[in-house]
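[job 0412] stage=complex_fold ligand=iron/sulfur cluster status=START
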Amino acid sequence: MPLIDSFGRTVNYVRLSVTDRCDLRCIYCMAENMTFLPRHEVLSIEEFTSLGQAFVGLGVTKLRITGGEPLVRRGTIELLQNLGQLRGLHELCLTTNGTHLPQYAQAIRDAGVQRINISLDSLNPERFRRLTRFGDLNQVLDGITAAQNAGLKIKLNCVALKHYNADEVPALVQFALDEGLDISFIEEMPLGKINDHGRAAEYVSSDDLRNQLARDYSLFPQENSHSDAGPSRYWRVAGFNSRIGFISPHSHNFCGSCNRVRVTATGRLLLCLGNEHSVDLRTQLRAANYSEAALREAIINSMQHKPEKHFFDLHEEPQIVRFMNMTGG
Ligand code: SAM
Ligand code: SF4
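[job 0412] stage=complex_fold status=DONE, emitting structure tokens
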């Protein structure tokens, strides 16, 4: 029985945020000083496995493990191994900042993951450090190499900020083309109260970025071929295999084709990235008389709370109080 919301959209893609913790502090994602969740509030690997099983039983065909940084959590590889065995799951994906890939890339591939997203906002070490507050670019570049060697298909994710890295978009695209990787540029979303910059001042639209690229590359649009695809709209460059994507929550609303929901590290089912509607699944998971049937019923009932669309206003901060590391990007 598929999950269908009250606007007729089928939900077949779920993102599980396995931790709110991270070894970086990207300026658009987190404030400088963050308080992280006490561990007992975070779902166990067994609980995440049960969730994955319930969702796949309800017709979900794509699961993405994210965070926070999923690879700083002990047990993430075990979770991938568990989920990789679920019958009916077509795609198991991971989103990571890449710093731990030299250690884990092969295990991730062996668990059944075929495609991963790696965040990369700059190829300049100084800038990279500024954007992540203390990150080391070389660690991520080594992570990309490790993932390539393990046979993982990679998409880079870059949050473009007007005065930080928007001028580097052509260089990032050239890197992706040279390495045979896909790349997506994301418009920054107003999630959580950050103290580094004003989000409105850093806004740069996907169309501006694409126009900038069109000076050096001839881009042609590509139809989205996956039935369970994400929110990126893709272009290609003649002669290359890479796809160049744009995720445009402000300039091109993608809610009409939304097929996804998210679960936070504490088991809160978020029905929309840009709204606070949520349903607590941890209570079901931790009930003394736990049953998968009851969990499934809670998930099915939650579909009626999925909002039609997000309304982001960059001039009103913060609109959504939870940070992206809580939300699961
Ligand atoms: N730590 C992993 C990583 O960085 O890829 C996974 C979690 S991170 C929250 C997932 C994605 O969300 C990253 O690509 C990140 O760049 C993006 N992101 C974080 N905060 C964002 C924001 N305020 N607006 C848009 N994208 C954001
Ligand atoms: Fe960490 Fe990812 Fe957020 Fe950066 S975007 S602070 S790497 S969770």
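The mean pLDDT is 92.
[job 0412] exit 0
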